[in-house]
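Running this now, will post back.
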Amino acid sequence: MWFSLIPVFLAAAVLLFVPGALVGAAAGLRASLVVAMAPAISIAIIAGTGVVAPVVGLAWGPVPIAAATALTALALLAARLWTARRRPERREAGARRRSDPVTAAAWCVAWPLSAAVTGYTVGRILNTPDAISQTYDAVFHLNAVEWILKTGNASSLRLLLEAPQGSVYPLGWHTLVAAAMRLCGATDIPLATNAMVLAVSGLVWTSGCLALTHILLRGRPLALLVAAVMAGSFSAFPILLLNWGVLYPNFLSVALLPALLAAARELVPTAGAHAGSGPTGLLLPAGALGVGGLGLTQPNTAATLLLALVILAVARAVTTVRTPPAERPAGALRRQALVSGGLAAALVLTWILMRPPRSAGELWGANYAASSSIGEAITSMPAPLWMIWVPAVLAFIGFVAALRTDGYRWLAVLHATTGALYVVARSTQDADLRFFLVGIWYNDSNRLAALLPVTAVPLAALGMLVVTQWTRALSAQLAAAQWARTLSERLSAVQWARGACERLAAAGERVRILSWWRWAACPVLVLFLVQTGPLSGAMSDSVKTLERTYMFSADSPSITPDERALIDELPDLIDKDAVVAVDPRSGAALAYALAGVDTTLKHLLHRHDPEVYVIQDKLNKAATDPTVCPAIRKLGATYALYFPGKTISNQKPFPGFTHLDTAPGFELVAKQGDAALYRITACG
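Update: finished.
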């Protein structure tokens, strides 16, 4: 059954990586950044085309996307060639910065490994390829994809799904799903959504984590292998946001963040940067495109990136100040001050202006003890998910080591800052303080928890390097111990032992036995980390906690098998252009995404016309209340779906959609279990 997902998955992978990779290669980026940044650049092109196409009178689709990709790549290629002609030293420097074969081989092993273990965990949560998240926001996200497919309008500046006059909403996620469906001819929106989830978690998130670790830790093979496993070992991401919300845009934006942090690290190097770690090619314009893709997906993650840039710039400025004036490049201090000040000003403006209304964040209050919240921040494991100790301990060791190292201190500061914001959202009772500090993230601790693994993954890789250093140091100390020297002297007095040691030493010199031991130990170490991370009992318990969201049964709060069966029959039961009155709290609004049927409401927060309120409150009184039929005629509703039983988030059903089975003025058309379709006859 999972094979049905492969065409959409492949289409998703093509859309995520091919446009951005072409642009990144044209910009002259190093290979690791070409791969990692490709998704952010691709989204900028795909979602950006959705904004531009209606302005210039074009329908959004594959042709404008391909044209935008070609034009962007050609523009960057021309700019790079022009720059190389004027500044040949940059071309020569870029030519010297190539990955060595060992690092390339580590990448070839680490990325498939990470994709496999992470994708396996996500697949366990989904249960089936066409599973529907039984959560509050799933109705909107699935319906938004159908709206793009049906209207051909993918502009984030005018989403008519929310209001008749249009509303601004970042459609990066939805345009990706819609484009993937068009590319492979898919028609099942839940299936396409889940394929995109697997592509983002298995490919985008993992490649970004590897790129960030690669740049921070100098491409060490062991660090890459550890990061590959750690990418799927923190329950806060990617699996948490697949349960909470469901927050597909936030999920995608967080997956993009490690790659953009890697690009930022190259643009703003810090103390301890290795030779050849500076930017290659036109990283700045490529990075700007990636930031645009991030903003078109979810702006609150763009605010996180801006916060990281400020921390990076300040770290670099501090390093510049500490550098003796004689060793400091001319004007370096002034440039660092301008960059840091400009980024800080941008962050302040973003912090003040780019936040949702205060009422939007009042849905989630502080409901946890500060001590427990601090513990969750330290371990990057939010409740009610289970603690996975090995990743948490490695990340903590890496955090302490990063604090003590100039080149990595910015990463530790960013991790601590994210953790502090999480604690504020989770436990602080002061409403004004919470709104000021975490209002950008809707005061939602889950969105902030998902950010913790972004820094925890490379910190865990650093922690493993520290542990290996400790092991080597301990071995050296043991070798230097008195008892060890005494034992060696006694063994040397024995003829056979002395001969064996000499032969072993000679063989070891010939085959470099220590080096072979290291490579032989890597698979064992990776297997250990896998078993204590993504395949651990604690992760399995977390999966069991989250997979309930996707359970498809008679007790499902959003849509049950009977309700799904009736929705699938709707195109054959009603007229092609008919409008169906629905209570979105019952899941009936999913008829728009699942069957392409127009509905009166398409989101649980959809509010615009007075007629909508009338139907919500009085539909079952259509035969007796004179205000109902005019509202029905205004909206064009001729049918009504009646889904009694559980509702999404345990909300009360709208009064107008209660007891429709006994209300006069409604004719039964079809029924599946308790789910029923009625023709509205009260209004003629």
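Residues 2-355 form one domain. More later if anyone needs it.
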